[in-house]
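Render this sequence as a predicted structure.
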Amino acid sequence: MAGPTGTAQKYRGATVEDLDPPPALSTKPLDTISSALMSAYERDYTHLTVVSQDTRALLGYISMPRLKHLLSEGAVQESDTVEKAMLRFRRKGNVYRVITMGTPLEALESFFNGDADGSKPQDFAVVTDEARRFVLGVATRTDLEEFVRRRPA
């Protein structure tokens, strides 16, 4: 019988829940960019989810590094609304990988690296319940790397 694969051995059965991801911090499309920046910096977050004003449905996200770039280039102003700088999730025709607290970390690593099915590498994952009704947190590639670094051999 073959031994565990490299990633399975690295994570030893750990799941996203073991990362203890911080709760997602959400903003709304009509919030100002300055308020989104302030919220992210106060909590040292690199990504904020963007939810509907009315239904709280997940619409997309805003990346602080990208936002800083847009601000420095003059593409957006701090007084503009988040919707001007957010990246929207494309729902039609896309199959989404559901990342839950029970997702194995080797699957999360595969998601971050771009799956064998040709999907693009990702910087962060929105962690939801199985039905994708509630955003429970956000996990980043850095969270995964820190987990491996802190975990005893």
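Summary. The chain has a mean pLDDT of 86. Residues 33-43 form the longest helix (11 residues).
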